[in-house]
Amino acid sequence: MIHPKSTIKGRGAQQNTHNRFFELSYEMRDDFLEFCHKEGELSDNNKTQYLNVFPRTIVNKVTSPDVGMAYSMNMYQGCEHGCIYCYARNSHEFWGYSAGLDFERRILVKKDAPSLLESHLKKKNWKAQTIVMSGNTDCYQPAEKQFEITRQCLEVFLKYKHPVAIITKNALILRDLDLLKALAEDNLISVNVSITSLSEDTRRILEPRTATIKRRLQVVKELSEQGIPVNVMLAPIIPSINSHEILPMAKAVSEAGALSIGHTIVRLNGAIGEIFSDWIKKAMPDKADKVLRQIEDCHGGTLNESRYGVRMRGEGQIAQQINDLVKLARLKYFNNKVMPVLNTKLHEPFKNRQMKLF
After folding, report:
1. Residues 21, 11, 206, CA angle at the centre, nearest 5°?
2. Is the pLDDT of residue 12 over 80?
3. What is the Cα–Cα distance from 358 to 89, expressed in whole angstroms?
4. What residues are paired with 336 via a beta bridge?
5. Of 62, 85, 96, which Cα lies nearest the Cα of 77?
6. Euclidean distance between CA atoms 124 and 106, whole angstroms
7. What is the three-class DSSP state of 161?
C-alpha cells in the first residue's frame, strides 16, 4: 500500500502486486512509508533498470483466435509507458517480476533479436506471413531510443523483403521513416497507432510515459502522407473514462489519414484487476466505483474475462452501446477506406540471397 502523500509520479501502477508463481512476497509497510514521509526521504528511487536477456527464439506463433495476428515478436519485456490497463503486465510474472511497478521499471532487453529474426527468416520451411512487432509490449518504448533494436529488426525485414506490422503509441517511430518508406514501396509494412483519448488529462493518467495525443495524431498524418498504411487502435475503451470519445476520436484519426480503426473493451485479467482498482481509487476516487461496476457489467459481472470471442468485445448493454458506436464510426468516417493486405510473395528468393537455377 502506498501512502497517499507518496504517490509515485510518472508511473501507472502504484504498487507491486504479488507474483502468483512465488510463495514469498515483498511488502512495503505503511509505518515505513510514514517514516520516509516525515523524514523527507524517498522510500523508492523510482528508477528504470534495463536488464539483458538472451532468448533462444524471437518469433512467436499466436494461437489466440481473436487477437488478429498469426506471429509476433517483442524486443523488450516490460514497458516503461506504464499504461495502467495493459494486458501484457501479467506476462512479467513469467520472468519472476511483479505485474505492477516492476513491469514499468524492470525492462528486459533482447539485444540478440535482429540476429534471431534473421535466422528465423532464413529457415527453409518458413513461409512468409506478417510478423507483428509489439504483440506484447511496445517496440518503440523509451528503451528503443537507447538500444535501437527495433530499427535493426526493420533492416532485417527490408533485407529479406518480408512483411511486418507494428503496434505503437510512441512518436519515436518517425525516426525510422526511411526504413518504413522503403518497406512500403513493396507493400511490406503497416502501422497500428494506439490512441485512447483526445484529452491530455486522460492520457496523462492512463498512459503516463507515452507520446502526447497531438504527437500521435501527427504520427498518423506523417506516416499516411508518406504512403505507409495506418490503422488506429481505439483501445481499450473504458466505460465512463473514454467511451464518450469514440466518434470524436474516429473523426480525428480519419482526418489525419488513418485507413481503418479497431477497438477492444477493457478487461482486467489476473493481477491487472488489483492494479487498476488500486490506481483508479487514487486517480479518480469520485468515479472509481462506477467505472469498476461498468467494466464488470461488460464481462458477466467480473473484471476478468478470458472467453474467446467475447473477451475483446464484451457483452451486455454497455458493451453493445460501445460496439454499436464503433460500427457507426466506421460507416461515418471510414466508409471508402481499406487497409491493404501485405505482400508475402517477395520473401522466398531472398532467403539465401542467391538466384535459383531452376
Report:
1. 100
2. no
3. 50
4. none
5. 96
6. 36
7. coil
CA distance 198 to 315: 25
CATH of domain 44-350: 3.20.20.70
For CA atoms 48, 49, 50, 51, the dihedral sign is negative
> What residue type is 302 in one-letter code?
T
C-alpha grid cell for residue 36? 520516509
Whether residue 42 is predicted with pLDDT greater than 80 in this model: the reply is no
- What confidence tens digit (pLDDT) does each residue in 206-234 have? 999 999 999 999 999 999 999 999 999 99
What are the extents of the domains in the chain?
44-350
Three cell numbers written together for 114: 535482429
Model pLDDT for residues 154-201, shown as the tens digit of each residue: 999 999 999 999 999 999 999 999 999 999 999 999 999 999 999 999
Strands (E) in the chain, as ranges, are 49-52, 59-61, 71-73, 76-77, 106-109, 131-133, 164-168, 189-194, 230-237, 260-265
Count CB neighbours of 20 within 10 A. Answer: 10
Q: How far apart are CA 229 and CA 341, in angstroms?
A: 10
Please state whether the predicted TM-score (pTM) of the whole model is above 0.70.
Answer: yes
Helix (H, G, I), strand (E, B) or coil at 190: strand
How wide is the angle at C-alpha 308 spanned by C-alphas 304 and 313, nearest 5°?
70
Contact at 8 Å (CB) between 173 and 141?
Answer: no
Name the phi and psi angles at 331, rounded to 5: -65, -40
Q: What is the pLDDT of residue 342?
A: 98
